[in-house]
Automatic annotation (TrEMBL):
<dbReference type="InterPro" id="IPR010230">
    <property type="entry name" value="FeS-cluster_ATPase_SufC"/>
</dbReference>
<dbReference type="InterPro" id="IPR017871">
    <property type="entry name" value="ABC_transporter-like_CS"/>
</dbReference>
<dbReference type="GO" id="GO:0016887">
    <property type="term" value="F:ATP hydrolysis activity"/>
</dbReference>
<dbReference type="InterPro" id="IPR027417">
    <property type="entry name" value="P-loop_NTPase"/>
</dbReference>
<dbReference type="InterPro" id="IPR003439">
    <property type="entry name" value="ABC_transporter-like_ATP-bd"/>
</dbReference>
<dbReference type="Pfam" id="PF00005">
    <property type="entry name" value="ABC_tran"/>
</dbReference>
<keyword id="KW-0547">Nucleotide-binding</keyword>
<feature type="domain" description="ABC transporter">
    <location>
        <begin position="1"/>
        <end position="139"/>
    </location>
</feature>
<protein>
    <submittedName>
        <fullName>ABC family transporter (Fe-S assembly/SufBCD system)</fullName>
    </submittedName>
</protein>
<dbReference type="GO" id="GO:0005524">
    <property type="term" value="F:ATP binding"/>
</dbReference>
<keyword id="KW-0067">ATP-binding</keyword>
Length: 229
């Protein structure tokens, strides 16, 4: 969480290797390897997924073809057999049902003429199909009505595994009411300035970011470190 321009989306895009960003310092280790030397497609095949704030429309490419090719690239990386079209249909149908998505989504072009809510559901469908190990979800709650938010949150919760991790970027506590985080981190000017539990989101909702800054001053005066290890 953090104010607009604090660096949340920048961090997310750097993790997945967005070409518009150049990393000039620091390091990221993923499964014992240097993540920053990997190409974006290598990161995706290795299990890193990002849901974008404004998903790109890809006219002329059907959802079914896109999802099957992506899933097979991930399966090949893991040494698993690729799915034929009929096999993929059986694989993806339960995932559509979990998101309460109409199977007709498979026949539509990727995000083309989708509503905001449909695009967000489609992003989570991609996450489910890829069975990612690390999911970076950048404001998946934006543009969703309350019912769609619950459906997407239920899907995210259903995808949790002991060996997976989810990093969510959000401005609002309403998402955290459905996907309860293990930790809440506050970012400012590209740095984590405060970490805590769900109560941090409660402070934000009540007192805004000034409330967090006040809390940091109180803890500093008491000799406590405000950023979780």
């Amino acid at each position: 969480m953090g104010t607009n321009g604090s660096g949340k989306s920048t961090l997310s895009k750097c993790l997945v290797g967005h070409p518009d960003y150049e990393i000039t310092g620091g390091s990221v280790t993923y499964k014992g390897e240097d993540l920053l030397v990997m190409e974006p497609e290598e990161r995706a095949r290795a299990g890193i997924f990002m849901s974008f704030q404004s998903p790109v429309e890809v006219p002329g490419v059907s959802n079914s073809d896109f999802l099957r090719l992506a899933a097979n690239a991930r399966r090949k990386q893991r040494g698993e057999p690729e799915l034929e079209p009929l096999e993929f249909y059986g694989f993806v149908m339960p995932k559509l049902a979990a998101l309460k998505m109409n199977p007709d989504f498979l026949n539509r072009d990727v995000n083309a003429n989708f509503s905001g809510g449909e695009k967000k559901r489609n992003e989570i469908l991609q996450l489910s199909v890829l069975e990612a190990d690390v999911a970076v979800l950048d404001e998946i709650d934006s543009g969703l009505d309350i019912d769609a938010l619950r459906d997407v949150a239920d899907a995210v919760n259903g995808l949790k595994r002991p060996d997976s991790a989810t990093l969510m970027v959000t401005h609002y506590k309403r998402l955290l009411n459905y996907v309860v985080p293990e930790a809440v981190h506050i970012m400012e000017a590209g740095r984590i300035i405060y970490s805590g539990g769900l109560e941090v989101a409660d402070i934000l909702e009540k007192d805004g970011y000034e409330g967090i800054k006040t809390l940091i001053k109180k803890e500093a005066a008491a000799g406590r470190e405000p950023v979780a290890a």
